[in-house]
Amino acid sequence: MRRVSMIAVLMIMVSLSSFPALAQDKAETAAECGMKFAQPVLISSAGQSADVKLVGMMAKRMKLKAEVKVMAKPEDLEGMKTLIVVPGFSAKGLGAAGISQKDEMERVVALVEAANKQEIPILMIHIGGNARRKGQSDAFNELVAKNSKYMIVVEQGNEDGFFTELSKETGVKLETAEKIPGTMKPMKNLFE
Amino acid sequence: MTLEKKHISAAIILIAAAVISIITGRQFLAKHYPETFYPSPGLTRTGKLSDYFSGLQGTENDSRVYFFEGEEEGSTVLLLGGTHPNEAASGLVAVLVLENVEVTVGRLIVIPRANRSGFTVNDPMEAHPQYYSIPTPNGERRFKYGSRLTSPLDQWPDPLVYSHRPSGQRLSGFETRNLNRAYPGRPDGSLTEKTAYGIVQLIKKENVNVAFDLHEAAPEIPIINAIVYHEKAEEVALNAIFELEMEGISVSPELSPSNFHGLSHREWGDYTDVYPFLMETSNPIQGRLRGETSAELIVEGVSPEYRMALESGALQIAYKETGEPIERRVARHVTCFRRVIEAYNQLGNKPVILENLPEYEDILQNGVGAYIVAGK
Question: Which of A52, A53, A92 to mutate to test the interface with B (most CBs of B within 10 A)?
């Protein structure tokens, strides 16, 4: 009888301990979790891919009060209420900016630290799919994901569960979209 | 008796050498015969690159230029295929367009073989085929498969270090024969620089507004399934990419670096008024992991070695389980080309209206051969 009780207690404990993970697997959408971000918004890159420009274009189409600064620095956060960071490495982008990968990482770390210090929430939007994963991209992806309050990711970029794992690890909400235009809906919900 | 045997052996060797020389000589000569194209009824005139720079007259790179002019005035578009003759989809798309297109507004200029010299040779040590064939409803059509670079028979020797003019950027010596490192070109330079100069003169004299340079790259190259654009053409590029995404065609936007010289997406934009776009698709035969190298690999794009790499997850590659067939690569280029022009039109510029070009799904379903004339 004691053995049966012990097994029952153990089973309940295992169930309880796994409950948050299960809840995390079923990611809530922006609308469901009620999370909101405020405007004005600073949109910047982490890795200098031109994806940041596409996010800027979508923000413009949604009439968000937003400013795109691909090379944003901590001082650019003044007056901003949200920081959107679009991670993804591009060698051509770094060339266009005239900086090295190390310079870019230092810039992003400084920007993220400043946002955290000023309690400006970070929204990560990863739209580059496979092309902005692994290789030199994942260091930027991980840094931004771990410091964000919410992640919107185009599914192709999460085929291996990279962002799902980061979401489980950090508790940061993750919402995926099938294609880039599909990221506009959660963005809109978050800023309504 | 021994002497006779020697004579017989010598005669056999001489005959074998002569037979091999004749066969290979004929193959070599055949690579120099120009390919035949069958322009659509929309063709209004043809010209040559030497019309824009006389220094190309009589050279292998005095390429044919095809004009399609609408009845209504509008903008002018340039489509360049065959900058790198080992990037099959590039030249094939230019052929598909010139054999189908009807222009109602504005003008389209097509140069299907930008570096014709590169089509006369193959890259050494690559085991590339000399030709590949596309099945059409009326038989196979054969196309030349060439080298990334201008033939060393037309431009030799390579310097140890290639110094790009006028930037002074230094690259490996062989890049001196790379057309897409030679822009804006020089009238008194190498054949490759002269070719680049001729193309830039054409862009200027014909007042080209939008220009495309089509490419392919190995699946492991980071800039793939991408549109590289000059900063002044950013709005057009982003709007086109957004529309492509709506259709389910993923394209990476890539901004042209201002400090990487000689490339079309940089120098065309810097030295002329044109909006330049360079497009890339994934071609397994150009990759290091490709394994068996054949004409089928160019067309079918199926490589077991790349599939292994994909399944291992160790590499970031642009390769699908079903391969990267020429249909998909051509369909991507044609669709991206069309959407960029549409975005350009929608942003309030003087329009260019191209008709009778197949949609993405049409090419996938019917094959490229349904849209080109069978060879004769």
Answer: A92
Beta strands per DSSP E along B112-200: 131-136, 139-144, 161-163, 170-172
| Type of residue at A1 | M
Pick B238's closest partner by Cβ from A57, A98, A160. A57
pLDDT grade, residue B59 (50/70/90)?
A: very high
Q: Do the Cβ atoms of B313 and A160 come within 8 Å?
A: yes
- Left, alpha or beta for B367 (phi > 0: left; psi -120 to 50: alpha)? left
In A17-90, DSSP assigns E strands to: 41-46, 66-68, 82-87
Nearest CA in chain B to A181: B246
ipTM: 0.81
Segment holding A170, helix H or strand E:
helix A162-170
Cβ separation B250–A54 shorter than 8 A? no
CA dist A96 and B287 (Å) reads: 26
Helix axes B326-346, B88-98, angle to 10 degrees: 60
Q: Which residue ranges make up each domain of chain A? A: 28-191
- State how far the Cα of B93 lies from the Cα of A77, in Å rounded to an integer: 47
Which chain B residue has its CA at the smallest distance from A97's CA?
Answer: B257
Number of alpha carbons in the 13 Å side-chain half-sphere of residue B90: 31
Q: Which of A53, A129, A130 sits opposite B238 (nearest CB)?
A: A53
B89 token code pair: 């989809």
**How far away is chain B from the Cα of A95, in angstroms, using its nearest Cα?**
5
Res. A24 pLDDT band, cuts 50 70 90: very low
Chain A: residue whose CA lies nearest to B225: A131
- Of A140, A177, A135, A172, the closest CA to residue A158 belongs to A177
| Contact predicate A46/A89, CB 8 Å | no
pLDDT tops 80 at residue B61: yes
- Please calculate the CA angle B186-B269-A137 and round it to the nearest 5 degrees: 115
Q: How confident is the model at residue A8 (pLDDT cuts 50, 70, 90)?
A: low
DSSP string computed for B9-78: HHHHHHHHHHHHHHHHHHHHHHTTSPPP----TTEEEEEEGGGT-GGGTTSTT--EEEEEE-SEEEEEEE
Averaged pLDDT for residues A66-90: 97
List the structure tokens of A10. Answer: 């153990």
What's the pLDDT at B314? 79
- Model confidence at A20: pLDDT above 60: no
pLDDT averaged over every residue in chain A: 88
Q: What is the pLDDT of residue A28?
A: 63
Tell me how far apart the alpha carbons of residues B281 and B287 are, in angstroms, rounded to a whole number.
12
DSSP state of A48: B
pLDDT tens per residue, range B78-100: 999 999 999 999 999 999 999 99
* Closest to A184 measured CA to CA, from B244, B235, B242, B236: B242
So what CATH class is A28-191? Answer: alpha beta
Band of the pLDDT at B130, cuts 50, 70, 90? very high
Facing residues of A45 across strands?
Answer: A86
Confidence grade of residue A16 (pLDDT, cut at 50, 70, 90): very low
